[in-house]
Design brief:
membrane, 4-stranded mixed beta sheet, D-Maltodextrin-Binding Protein, domain 2, mainly alpha, 397 residues, transmembrane helix, 4 strands, 2 domains
Length: 397
């Protein structure tokens, strides 16, 4: 390893180890995992339940068995038709909860026996099946083959030709992109502030003076950013992996090449965005020496990120191709938040992605340079708040 980077690695490892072993990280991560586990258990209970409607038929109403089974899928109902020996046995099965309904009497106007009232979707299935029976009887009485009419109707209707066929995975991939934006926003608010608070604590306790006797300010800054960035990435992997597992178990998410690409882009943009914002927070934290003054220097950054996130989220969900979200996703401070989601939807041309990435890299480099200078000029100054003009002066080494 380069001798100039060895201290950076040591500082990053120290920050990573101290934060990962801390109660806030452990209990916070466990709390979210418990919530995800509870959500998965609820989903499993719901999906494990018997959602099949059971309908008994008896007497002449047995003729409704076929129409009932054909009508059920159109109403989104899973239906099992069970013939009953007589009305009394069928009604007893309904009272015992073995049947949801008993259909008897004439097929054109059947008598439906239920315990209380039939579900709306089951009632629609019964209406559809009765209508089919009456129609078929009417057509047959006039010498028209109902099957031939159904075949002719099946071959009719408009043929939809879409310039851009719908992507069945667009929703899940957009969800991943928005989840990445939220996790980055969450990390900025939590770990970014943690970087600033750590800087202020070291200044107040004079620990930073001991540390800087062995390393340069830029090495300390970079080590903090890398260490806490690794903590945020670890939590992203844990929570993201658990969330993907829950979504997969619920059948909401099907892993495919598009989803893998989206996941990779979310991680890459997350790392880039965290490096950018963590540097800003560290530089801002170095301007003050007391914890009670920290919020005053962090507020402009957090408010800017919050407003950008709210505006961009609304623009993205309403019109992902619009000029507003396009411009916002190209601006470096907000590219890591919204470009992954636009990439997931397939509405970001390759040129825009490359441009946003290049601009973000360049902007991050400028922020690192300015942040390093501010940090170097401010981190050893205690007492009164350091003005931005003084912090941007000639860097101390």
């Amino acid at each position: 390893m380069n001798p100039r980077l060895r201290p950076v690695g040591l500082i990053a490892r120290r920050e990573f180890a101290s934060r990962v072993r801390g109660r806030a990280f452990v209990f916070g991560t466990l709390a979210v995992l418990v919530l995800l586990g509870a959500y998965a258990a609820v989903l499993a209970t719901i999906t494990a339940g018997d959602d099949t409607a059971r309908v008994g038929v008896t007497g002449p109403a047995v003729a409704l068995a076929g129409p009932l089974q054909r009508a059920a899928p159109t109403e989104g109902v899973t239906l099992t038709v069970i013939p009953q020996p007589d009305v009394a046995a069928g009604e007893a099965a309904v009272r015992a909860g073995d049947l949801d309904a008993l259909v008897g009497g004439e097929p054109a106007r059947p008598r439906v026996f239920v315990e209380s009232e039939p579900p709306a979707d089951l009632e629609r299935v019964l209406d559809d099946a009765t209508t089919v029976v009456v129609r078929d009887a009417f057509l047959t009485g006039r010498g028209v083959d109902p099957g031939a009419l159904d075949a002719a109707l099946a071959e009719s209707g408009p043929v939809i030709v879409a310039a851009e066929p719908p992507d069945p995975q667009a929703g899940p991939r957009l969800g991943l992109g928005l989840a990445g934006a939220f996790l980055l926003f969450f990390s900025i608010q939590s770990y970014g502030a943690m970087v600033a608070q750590g800087v202020v604590e070291e200044k107040a306790s004079r620990v930073v003076e001991i540390v800087l006797s062995s390393v340069r300010p830029w090495q300390l800054l970079l080590g903090k950013v890398l260490g806490l960035g690794a903590v945020g990435l670890l939590q992203l992997v844990i929570l993201g992996g658990a969330g993907l597992a829950v979504a997969g178990a619920a059948g909401v998410l099907v892993v495919g090449p598009g989803l893998v690409t989206t996941l990779v882009s979310v991680v890459v943009w997350y790392l880039l965005g965290f490096a950018l914002y963590a540097t800003v927070f560290a530089a801002a934290g170095s301007l003050v020496s007391r914890q009670e003054d920290t919020q005053s220097v962090l507020s402009p950054v957090t408010i800017t990120v919050l407003l950008g996130f709210v505006v961009g989220f609304n623009l993205l969900t309403s019109d992902p191709r619009g000029a507003g979200i396009t411009v916002l996703s190209l601006l470096p401070p907000f590219s890591p938040l919204f470009m992954p989601a636009r990439m997931a939807l397939g509405v970001a041309p390759a040129g825009q992605v490359v441009l946003a990435f290049a601009l973000t890299i360049a902007f991050t480099a400028v922020v690192l340079a300015l942040g390093g200078r501010i940090y170097a000029n401010s981190v050893l100054r205690t007492g009164a708040r350091v003005s931005l003009r003084e912090a941007l002066g000639r860097a101390r080494t």
